[in-house]
Structure formats: structure tokens, C-alpha cells
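Comment thread on ticket #2218

A.B. wrote:
> Attaching the input chain for the structure job we discussed in standup.
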Amino acid sequence: MANNILQLTSVELRQVIEQELAENPALEVPDEDPCENCDLPKTLCIDCPFRKEKISSDDTDISIYELEQPIDFAADAEEENDFIANVRDEITLKDHLLSAIREVLDEDKLEIAEYIIANVADSGYLEGTVEEFAMELGAQTDEVEDILQAIQTLDPPGVAARDLRECLQIQLERLAEDGGGNPVALAVVRDFWQEMLSGRIGRIARRLRVSAKDVHAGIEFVRKQLNPYPGNGFRPPFQSNSDSHGASVRPDVIVRRTPAGYEIEIVGHDRHYLSISGTYRAMYEEIRNGGVSKYSAEDKKHITEFVERADLFMRNINQRRRTLRQISMAIIEFQQGYLETGAKAFLRPLTRTKIARKLKLHESTVSRATANKYIQLPSEEVAPFDFFFDGSVSVKDMIGELIAGENKSSPLSDQQIADILIKRGFSVARRTVVKYREAQKILSSRQRRH
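C.D. wrote:
> Ran it. Output below, let me know if you need it in another format.
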């Protein structure tokens, strides 16, 4: 559950909270006046501008016995803040994969990776074979296969699969890594695919040494929990007006400049007004303290299950808040030059691996926390988190800016540009400069000389 909560956007988080409130009687929002604009409880309204008391940024965990400090899912929305901002380009599945794979592979493997990703359909499936790609690229089949497997580790799970079986197997293996898998389902898809399609449940059960009921449950898990079209599950962040020229997105993190430095708000994530029901809490503590005679076994199970589920839900949400805050603070510290100037030339090379090492987190945690999320900067520009990790984009922009500011009578050569970028921390070869310069339709230094 923790990983699932972590990768939710602010809009998705709101939906999950509403669902959990509907399903868990031990979780509640204290009574309060509704928002004047939408009639929702203010704690669930992240759109309407209303003022609320600022809360401490203390990160202390909520204990099952110390639930006086509830959780608030309302943003610090103030009249002057625009929570809907426009981005110029819609992020496609291919854009997402290209950005993510640059954090995984060395530069010399990116050409093959980009070619493979160009052959991923919108449904998420790979169109073409490894052998065909190797022949067209003049590469070794084993090398192409290794790079394809690296792409298949990216989100959404199952992407770049060659067929349905591989797609489902990738998803089941990912779920197993996250502790939410089904071993029987994985074994059936991986080892007994044809038997499953033929309905030979008894044979599968005997070979796996499990009951037929377990096999049926595994197959049902595949049907209900997996996505046969992983690309269809990828979508750009929240759009409020599909007819607009740009995609409207809601920031998940807002950064404000204050006299004391930068202030970070995790949208919809303050810690007031979501708590465990007082009635359920009292009954739970009574059961834990030995007063069990007045409750039936079924009542005890019901109370304990829902109270502990509510507490775990709250802890996971708080963990999401802390992780996003840590990552955002690290990015701000690292990219302060860009935040202060707005000039892409001041973007420093940054990877999720570097952030993970600094914060002592797993790289996959940083990837899940920032995937499909947006950050609103002090300038009120809204950018995807990927913007700060996409080294190739910043290098391309820096090349353009260096050439725009050069002495026209003595323009910079490609090697001189590469040397400047290396001094700024970018490991860039001359041929890379040539590629990015030509991609921007910029002439060579000889042709630029006046």
C-alpha cells in the first residue's frame, strides 16, 4: 500500500481518501462547515480558495495511541495562488519512457534505447522484434535484448512487452517485488500459459502442488488486478480543459520564496481533520487493555481490523508527504541557480540516483514519488519533476543559449562548447553537441561566422 500511495498525484490522492472514508468506519473527517464554493468539507476541497491556520512542519509519526493530531488534506490555497497552470506540451508515453530511461542507461546505450522506445505503440506493446532492431541498428542481439529488459523495468508496469504473456508476467513480478503479488498467478502465467488458456486447471494444480481453488484464485487475480494494455493506463496529469492549447495540470508540490528561504507545500497533504473515530479508538484501546469480555470475537476482529487499517493508511500518507518534501528540498538545493534566474543554462546535471543517495532512499522510491507529478516554482511556472532530471533536455537548451550569447565574429566550435559543458559538470562529447545543435537547426561555427 505504501508504494501505491507514494506514486499517487494530488488528484488521485483525494479520490483514494474519499474511497477509504466510504469503506472504513474507523476513519473520519470531523464535522465542519462545508466550503462556500463547492459544498464539500473544506478538508476534501483542494480547489476552492479558503484560508486556514498554518500548521507545524513537524514530521513526527502519528501513533496508534496518540491520534490527537489528525491529518488535513486541504491545500494552503490562498487567493493569490493559481493552482491550475498550463504546460505547453502534453507528455506522451514515449516522452515518459525516454526521460526515465536516461536515468538508467549509460549514454552509449541511449541510441538503441531511443530506437526501441520509438517502436512502442500507444497500447504499451513493442512493435517489432529484437532481431529486427539489431539488424537495423547494426548492433548485437544480446545488447538490444539487455536494453529492452531495462526499458521493461520502467513504469507503467508491463510496458514494452512483446506479447500478452510477457506483459502480465512483468506486472506480476513487479507486484511480487512490492510485496503485493500472487505466487500462484505468477507461476501460472510464466510456466503454464497454454494450460491456462486451455482451461486445464487440474493439470496446473498437480504440477504446482496446490489446490484447484488456489489456481482459480490465481487466474482471477490476473483478470482483476492486471492491465492487458499498460499504455492505456498511462495518461498525462490532470486536464481541466481538453480543448485548451496546453494541458492544464495541478501541481503536487508548491514552492514559495520567503524572506527566510524557500517554503514547500505538499498539495492536499497537511495533517489536520482526518483521524480515527473517537468511538472506534475508545473500543480499540479497551480491547488492547484487556476489556474484551463485552465484545464478541467478530466485534473484536472488526474493530481491530478497521482501526489498524486506518492508522496504516494515515501513516502511509504521512510517509508520502515526508518523502515528497525531502525530494523537493533536495532538488531546490541542487537547482537553486535555476530557481533564482529562470535560465536553463543554470540547470545542473541531476539524476534520481544522485537524489536517492543523498537522501539514503532507494532509487525506485524517488522514481515512484516523482512519476507524473508537477512542481510549481516561485515564478509560478509549473514543471514536471522530470524537467530537473532530464539531462539531455538541459544540455540541448544550454547549447542553444551558449550559441545565442557567443561572439558572432568568433563563434564557438562544437569542441569548445563541449569543453564548456564539461566544466559545468556535464559529460558531453563533441558528437553529442553536434547532434543537439543540428536538432535545433543551428548552423556550424564556420557557417555562423559574420
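A.B. wrote:
> Thanks. Noting for the ticket: Residues 8 and 251 are 12 Å apart (CA to CA).
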